[in-house]
Structure formats: C-alpha cells, structure tokens
C-alpha cells in the first residue's frame, strides 16, 4: 500500500478516555505504515480549526488523501481495520 502523503488527523480533548484508545489505534497504523502523517489537534487549543472541520465529538479521526480531501471520518474509536481501509482508499 503506497500511503505516502496520506494524513491521519485526530481531534481530541484532554478529558477524553476514548481519545487514549484512539491514539493507540492510530499508533498501530502508523507503526505499520510509517510513511503516513499523523497529527493531533486538541479541540480546546484549536477551537476554530475544529469548528471549520465540523468536529462535534472527541475523538474524531479524519483520513485525508495526499491532496487534502477527506476520505474517511470516524467519531469515536475506529478499528485498525477501518483506518487501514481508509488509508488504502486515500492512496488510490
């Protein structure tokens, strides 16, 4: 899978227990595909960014194709398989 240029975005908050589980899922994916980019945004630190991206709950994961287009969004904890499928879709 050629995942270069694919970006995973995690919108989180400090009080969110599910965010820790989501970090673990994304960490596993990043371990399998080190060429992907992973960025985390704390919604308390970046409320304007969260609003522009329609974030209404934490955790929210967005997978973006190399051109920046959104190909997948999960509110809550996604599975490793869901994220891998989204990365494959973003890589097409």
Structure description:
This protein has one domain (12-63, 74-91): Glutaredoxin (3-Layer(aba) Sandwich), CATH 3.40.30.10. The protein contains three helices and four strands; from the N terminus they run βαβαββα. It has helices at 17-32, 47-52, 80-91; strands at residues 7-12, 37-42, 60-64, 70-75. The chain has a four-stranded mixed β-sheet. The protein is globular and about 35 Å long. It starts with 6 loop residues before the first strand and ends with a helix. The mean pLDDT is 95.
Task: Annotate the secondary structure layout.
Elements: E1 7-12, H1 17-32, E2 37-42, H2 47-52, E3 60-64, E4 70-75, H3 80-91
Parallel strand pairs: 1-2
Antiparallel strand pairs: 1-3, 3-4
Features:
92 residues, alpha+beta, Glutaredoxin, 4 strands, 25% strand, globular
Taking strands numbered 1, 2, ... along the chain, how are they ordered across the largest sheet? 2-1-3-4
Mean pLDDT: 95
- Taken together, the total number of domains comes to 1
The CATH level-2 architecture is identified as 3-Layer(aba) Sandwich
Beta percentage is: 25-35%
Low-confidence stretches: none
What's the story with the biggest beta sheet? 4 strands, mixed
Distinct helical segment count: 3
Query: What is the CA-CA span between the terminal residues?
Result: 9 Å
Number of strands: 4
Residues in helices, as a percent range: 25-40%
Q: CATH superfamily membership, which one?
A: Glutaredoxin
Q: What is the overall shape?
A: globular
CATH class: Alpha Beta
Rg estimate, integer Å: 12 Å
Order of helices and strands: EHEHEEH
